[in-house]
Write a structure and sequence with these properties.
Helices cover 42% and strands 15% of the residues. Helix 2 packs parallel to helix 3, helix 3 crosses helix 4 and helix 6 crosses helix 8. The chain has two domains: 204 residues, Rossmann fold (3-Layer(aba) Sandwich); 170 residues, P-loop containing nucleotide triphosphate hydrolases (Rossmann fold, 3-Layer(aba) Sandwich). The chain starts with 9 loop residues before the first helix and ends with a helix.
Length: 419
């Protein structure tokens, strides 16, 4: 199938051709026709499958074919969970609308709102936003979404993971009841279907790949290793393998910072990206990683969700996620667009149950290797470490200090959600 056969306008086909695309991806092929028909759509698609074009192309086609002449209210709202994803969706909208009379902008927290407000006042057709900044500006009477005709909820599962449900419900009440709704999610969990029932009207359901499947082009391997030898092992693998671009996942922000410092001390250029980093620092780290100035990007799951890094060769799970589906999201960063990728996991004794759950989910046993000098501890407990348990052991000197730490952590979590 070609893009021409999907019924898109000549201006959009020209923009698609300029980007070098000739055939739609499976999710584009399945999602674009019902969106063009004006139907609500519930789509299951991983990041990296071309899902962004799956909603931006038909959305832009609709807006350009049905122009508003007198003024430019916000006619389409695309809601994303993270700043990085919002910025990437905005770039996609800009690229595909190059030959259209369509204006767009992106708003998110962590940066000065004045330039964003100035652009909004000039009038825009498409707004890409994170929930926190959108509600902040609405509460200041600096924007209105009461004329939205198309609403897109991107990465819906991550929205729920980050605690945005209440914000989404508030935003829904600010838009007109009559509108087209598009919802994209990596998984169709029970909570996602419940959310969809409250947003979508008789939706067409499309899936790009079987739910929770892994990419065939990805080579997966597990290194069994003692917990206290993980840092030495990952530095050995990166250095001796001469890896140039590696995305490393940790469970916590503290762990990401700690590992990044160890990498730098070993002479490996590295940067951390997580919710406590300023937007400027996150943007700089990602730009450095994409350009090759930074060899290793150490990230938490939330910060890395939606990152568009073409042809990423290596993903390393420094710590396995305690949610099996997150493993699929993580390793899906590599092996894109037909390229081969390698996903490695450093697994200590306390992560044994996580590994079993992941293998059950993906339906296969992952190859295991042990490297001399980095053997697993035969006496270590296989009981999973509870979130924050290590930090409490290291940092709590009294019950009072522990309570203070919890208060600070709670404050940080609340702050992270205001994207």
């Amino acid at each position: 199938m070609s893009f021409q056969s999907l019924g898109l306008s000549d201006a959009l086909l020209k923009a698609i051709s300029k980007k070098g695309y000739t055939e739609p991806s499976p999710i584009q092929e399945k999602a674009i026709p019902p969106v063009l028909e004006g139907r609500d759509v519930l789509a299951s698609a991983q990041t990296g499958t071309g899902k962004t074009a799956g909603f931006t192309l038909p959305l832009l086609h609709y807006l350009s074919e049905n122009p508003k002449q007198k003024f430019r209210p916000i006619r389409a709202l695309i809601l994303t969970p993270t700043r990085e994803l919002a910025a990437q969706v905005y770039e996609s909208v800009k690229d595909y609308s190059e030959f259209l009379n369509i204006s767009s902008t992106v708003i998110f927290g962590g940066v000065n709102q004045k330039p964003q407000v100035a652009t909004l006042r000039r009038g825009i057709d498409v707004l890409i936003a994170t929930p926190g900044r959108l509600l902040d500006l609405h509460n200041q009477n600096l924007l209105s979404i009461k004329r939205v005709e198309v609403f897109v909820l991107d990465e819906a599962d991550r929205m729920l993971d980050m605690g945005f449900l209440r914000d989404i419900e508030r935003i829904m009440k600010l838009m007109p009841d009559k509108r087209q709704n598009l919802m994209f999610s990596a998984t169709f969990s029970k909570d996602i279907r419940k959310l969809a029932n409250g947003i979508l009207n008789q939706p067409v359901q499309v899936e790009a790949t079987p739910e929770n499947s892994t990419v065939d082009a990805i080579s997966q391997k597990v290194y069994r290793v003692a917990k206290n030898k993980k840092t030495g092992l990952i530095i050995k693998l990166i250095s001796e393998g001469n890896w140039k671009q590696v995305l490393v996942f940790t469970r916590t922000k503290h762990g990401a910072n700690k590992l990044t410092k160890k990498m730098l001390s070993a002479g490996i250029s590295a940067a951390a990206i997580h919710g406590n980093k300023s937007q400027g620092a996150r943007t700089k780290a990602l730009a450095g990683f994409k350009s090759g100035k930074v060899r290793v990007l150490v990230a938490t799951d939330i910060a890395a969700r939606g990152l568009d890094i073409p042809l990423l060769p290596h993903v390393v799970n420094f710590e396995l996620p305690n949610i099996s589906e997150d493993y699929v999201h993580r390793i899906g960063r590599t092996g894109r667009a037909g390229a081969n990728g390698q996903a490695l996991s450093l697994v200590s004794a306390d992560e044994t149950s996580y590994l079993r759950s992941i293998e059950k989910l993906i339906g296969e046993k992952i190859e295991i290797e042990i490297i001399e000098g980095f053997e697993p501890d035969p006496n270590a407990s296989t009981e999973p470490v509870k979130p924050g348990q290590n930090r409490q052991r290291q940092h709590s000197k009294s019950n009072r200090s522990g309570k203070n730490q919890n208060k600070r952590n709670n404050t940080r979590r609340r702050g992270d959600r205001r994207n």
